[in-house]
Amino acid sequence: MGLRKILFVSTAFVGLSAMLAGSGSDHSPNLRPQPNPHGAAQTFSGAGYINLGSKFFKSLGTNERTCGTCHSESDGWTVTPEHVQARFESSQGTDPIFRTNDGAVCSTADVSTVEARRNAYSMLLSKGLIRVQIGVPANAEFVVENIDDPYVCATPDALSLFRRPLPATNLRFLTTVMWDGRESPKGRSLHDSLMSQAIDATTGHAQGLAPTGKDVEDIIAFEMGLTTAQFWDNSLGALNSHGANGGAMALSKQEFYTGINDPLGGNPTGAAFDPTVFRIYSNWSNEHYGGEGSEMREAVSRGEAIFNTRPIPITGVAGLNDELHAPVINGTCTTCHDSPNVGNHSVPLPINIGLVGEDRRTPDLPLYTLRCVATGEIFKVTDPGRALITGKCKDIGKFKGPVLRGLASRAPYFHNGSAATLRDAVDFYDARFNLNLTEQDKSDLVAFLQTL
């Protein structure tokens, strides 16, 4: 059955489900296929349908934006450059996502003409990046010695940081809200972190007053009810066939609690870490029944096994090697991506894997020279990351790892969109940790990752 036909059949089925749940203009079908370059994803909502009447989709500020402006179901509940570009062309750069307060390379950028707007929103158009401005904390252990900003916008009091909007789905698996964890101080619950995030998004991104408690609770309830995953692959068909457990319905039933399967001893049950984190496609290994797609299913299963078991000599990762006083940690991909069948870390774990150093700077990113006052050590980074929240030198360049489900819908990858494709992301890790992956290994890993 082709993708077009399966989309039609699925849409008809879930459309009927929505009608039974009480459909209307404020309802969108549960599990509606959302096509992406590798197939289609789907979202399951515990409400029985996607509630378009939620405050998530209402303008609560002054610039016409809603939460849905930067968190679209069609983009895995974030935004992608392809669809941002389409919105620019259809609106000539006036769609609500194009606002200078954070969508432009600088709040003072010229937006008087279409071409001026195209330049002003270049980072949003090319990589789906929003500009975040954060200053150096008053108690910081470091100072900003130099700023090399192509947009002449950043200052020590307001560094310009270009970051991808994180998905507004699969939130029940989170232990940290935002890339730098700024909404999740120690001891704050996930609910309260999401409350703080919703308030800050309304006053910041939407340029409004703080929303009412009722509105915030509505947004949180909507977000927490969403589960998203890839359910159809262009080469494989349904990802829950032949004994596999792909798709949003299976993920919605996945057990999770803070510390589950934590390799660093954070599991409250005391259970030992199991590096076999993903068990979605184990039934596809060494298929003996043959048939259409069997070779590709085996590739996905091999990729899952590589992710779970391929040894990685983890070195130079701030937040791991230094904290454990271990120059080399013999791990796997799942050492950091430990949440079962989800792939983020089950406890807060900001780490620096080497994405922000001067050696990886591209001309469109600012470069900040930081000096640690006590030691004189110099860091040149495109984004100080968590250090701008804690003020600590040891946190320079640290970010959390995101949930891995629904990857196919939301390229580019990493906090700064530096990996245009999943293959680019695999190549980064291969080079960073000297994995010596073969072409077959890389192809199998990509095949696996794009089915999540």
Number of domains: 2
Spatial strand order of the main sheet: 2-3-8-9
How far apart the termini lie comes to: 21 Å
Structural class: alpha+beta
Helix percentage: 25-40%
Summed up:
With about 450 residues, the protein is α+β, with helices and mostly antiparallel strands.
What does this entry look like structurally?
- The chain is α+β, with helices and mostly antiparallel strands and 452 residues long.
- It has 2 domains: 321 residues, no CATH class; 66 residues, no CATH class.
- Helix content is 27%, strand content 13%.
- It contains 12 helices and 13 strands.
- Strands 2-3-8-9 form a 4-stranded antiparallel sheet. Strands 6-12-13 form a 3-stranded antiparallel sheet, with no helix packed on it. It has a two-stranded antiparallel sheet with strand order 1-4.
- The chain starts with a helix and ends with a helix.
Give the secondary structure arrangement, pairings included.
Layout: H1 3-21, E1 27-29, E2 34-36, E3 39-45, E4 49-51, H2 67-70, H3 81-91, H4 114-120, H5 122-127, E5 130-134, E6 142-148, E7 159-163, H6 190-203, H7 213-224, E8 226-233, E9 237-238, H8 248-252, H9 294-309, E10 312-314, E11 329-331, E12 367-372, E13 378-381, H10 387-390, H11 422-432, H12 439-449
Helix pairs in contact: 6-7, 9-12, 11-12
